[in-house]
């Protein structure tokens, strides 16, 4: 029997279900199930992201306008990307230009992949005259310390012979001179904020190479080469700016792009989900709500450390609104997810009739999960 509607509304704010559902589709499917169970209840869809892949889509779904931009992908081949703009703010997703998904044929290029296209996205945003740029880090295919990004913005990186460095982290071992050139002053009137959900430094056992290099295809000697390159990069950037930020929390994010953003773009770093919820207007959307439903592909220990569903749960709690979750898989105990603030969690794997259904029938099962949550939590 459909749930009896009451005053208030429901906010559906999931992150993407990686590999199966984009955030907007997950929100639409969960919302459809809630509407089926409670047809008279207002349901607001607000897909979210934690600053990584899906950041651009979340901004567009929240009413930002997409501006197409053709930029260099991680291997230098052109890719079609976009930035999201609303009022005085532009949102940039690093993965749009330098993400793993942008690698031709999915073939990794750990030593030569570059963040150059990210700088092109930033340059386009500056040309639009915005006063604030938000850069979502995550999903990077490169470990170049953001060197390519700043080259695209006018910095010159030269070797001992005076030649401009080739793209990629390996080339940084030959770096002899950093000339910031037009980069200096180009962002004077622009506030740059980085949305990031990791606190890794640039170098060392918790740094960009050691922790994230293998995800980008680096192994064995490659890891040594990249660490040497980033070390040289940190030394010369420190000499050029008078500040050593190699140990700053988040400097190792996105192959070290966090370091370049902090040291050379004057960026401020904020927790990704916190910043995105602010940009997306979550506080306004949740005001007066009866329930918030969030979710992601896997609710696990990582979720509890700054991932989108935990951030949504915390924000909902501050507003005094109950929060539930839909997950592709659930790897937390009931005590763990209750301590995180969730009143109910439904996993698609528990709704699946056959192995693999939670992937091949994810959209259908997400809708069923929404219907069951409504019946459980919204009925009087």
From TrEMBL:
Keyword Kinase attached: yes
Entry GO MF terms: kinase activity
Protein name: Glycerate kinase
Record InterPro entries: Glyc_kinase_flavodox-like_fold (IPR018193), Glycerate_kinase (IPR004381), Glycerate_kinase_RE-like (IPR018197), Glycerate_kinase_sf (IPR036129)
Species assigned in the record: Kitasatospora cystarginea
Any Pfam family hit: Gly_kinase
Sequence intervals crossing the membrane: none
UniProt KW keywords: Kinase, Transferase
């Amino acid at each position: 029997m459909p749930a009896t509607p009451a005053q208030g509304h429901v906010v559906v704010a999931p992150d993407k279900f990686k590999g199966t559902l984009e955030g907007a589709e997950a929100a639409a499917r969960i919302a459809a199930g809630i509407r089926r169970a409670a047809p008279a209840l207002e349901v607001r869809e607000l897909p979210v992201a934690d600053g990584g892949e899906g950041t651009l889509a979340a901004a567009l779904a929240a009413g930002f306008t997409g501006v197409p931009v053709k930029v260099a992908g991680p291997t230098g081949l052109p890719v079609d990307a976009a930035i999201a703009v609303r009022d005085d703010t532009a949102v940039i997703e690093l993965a749009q230009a330098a993400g793993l998904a942008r690698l031709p044929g999915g073939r990794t290029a750990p030593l030569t992949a570059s963040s150059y296209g990210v700088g092109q996205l930033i340059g386009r945003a500056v040309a639009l005259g915005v006063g604030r740029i938000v850069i979502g880090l995550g999903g990077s295919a490169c470990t170049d310390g953001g060197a390519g990004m700043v080259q695209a913005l006018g910095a010159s990186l030269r070797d001992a012979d005076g030649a401009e460095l080739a793209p990629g982290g390996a080339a940084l071992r030959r770096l002899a001179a950093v000339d910031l050139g037009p980069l200096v002053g180009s962002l004077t009137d622009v506030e740059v904020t980085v949305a990031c959900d990791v606190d890794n430094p640039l170098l060392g056992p918790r740094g960009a190479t050691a922790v994230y290099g293998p995800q980008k295809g680096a192994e064995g000697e490659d890891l040594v080469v990249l660490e040497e390159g980033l070390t040289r990069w940190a030394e010369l950037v420190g000499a050029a700016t008078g500040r050593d930020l190699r140990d700053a929390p988040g400097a190792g994010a996105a192959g070290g792009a966090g370091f370049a953003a902090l040291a050379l773009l004057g960026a401020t770093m904020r927790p990704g989900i916190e910043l995105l919820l602010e940009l997306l207007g979550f506080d306004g959307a949740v005001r007066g709500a009866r329930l918030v439903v969030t979710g992601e592909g896997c609710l696990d220990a990582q979720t509890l450390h700054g991932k989108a569903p935990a951030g949504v749960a915390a924000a909902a709690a501050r507003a005094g609104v109950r929060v539930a979750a839909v997950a592709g898989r659930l790897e937390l105990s009931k005590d763990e997810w209750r301590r995180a603030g969730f009143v109910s969690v439904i996993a698609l794997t528990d709704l699946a009739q056959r192995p693999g259904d939670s992937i091949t029938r994810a959209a259908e099962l997400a809708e069923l999960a929404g219907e069951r949550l409504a019946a459980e939590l919204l009925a009087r």
